[in-house]
Amino acid sequence: MAETQEASLGYGGELWLKSGAALKELKQVKEFDVPSGGAREQVETTHLKSPNWRREYVSGFFEDSDFEVVLNSRPLSDTDTLLAAALADGEVRDFKAVLPEDGTPVAQVTGTARCIAYSRGRVTAEGVMEATATFRVVTIADIVAYAAPA
């Protein structure tokens, strides 16, 4: 893909989660964090003669990252049932995040994650009910070109 300086909207993005033997697209997703591999813990190694009065560090363990998915809350829909089951069983599931450019899928991030929270949101007189699912990344692959589902 050619490099541009123009921003792109998230229109057309998708989030898929494993259900049974297949990945299922979560419906009516409004936004999601792009899953990442987390951050490296920094362990301080400063000593009495650290150069230039500066603290020193070495990289330690990776810290798992979390990502959130916000969607229109539709109680008892297939998506709602899948997310509630993912939270209840606590199992590690495959996921795929599809990243668009100008409404066209161009890249994807795949990996495994565990649902650690699911809220069906708040009911208000004039607002749309929004649900939020939070996932903790277990494994993640590099971002690659988009591959359409088979």
Walk me through the structure:
- By secondary structure, the chain is mainly β.
- It has one helix and ten strands, in the order E-E-E-E-E-E-H-E-E-E-E.
- It has one helix at 78-89; strands spanning 14-19, 22-25, 29-32, 39-44, 57-63, 66-72, 92-101, 104-119, 130-140, 144-145.
- The strands form two sheets. Strands 1, 2, 3, 6, 7, 8, 9 and 10 form an eight-stranded antiparallel beta sheet that branches. Strands 4-5 form a two-stranded antiparallel sheet.
- The longest helix has 12 residues, at 78-89.
- It is globular.
- The protein starts with 13 loop residues before the first strand and ends in a 5-residue tail after the last strand.
- The model has no long low-confidence stretch (mean pLDDT 93).
Topology, element by element:
Elements lengths: L13 E6 L2 E4 L3 E4 L6 E6 L12 E7 L2 E7 L5 H12 L2 E10 L2 E16 L10 E11 L3 E2 L5
Antiparallel strand pairs: 1-2, 1-7, 3-6, 4-5, 6-9, 7-8, 8-9, 8-10
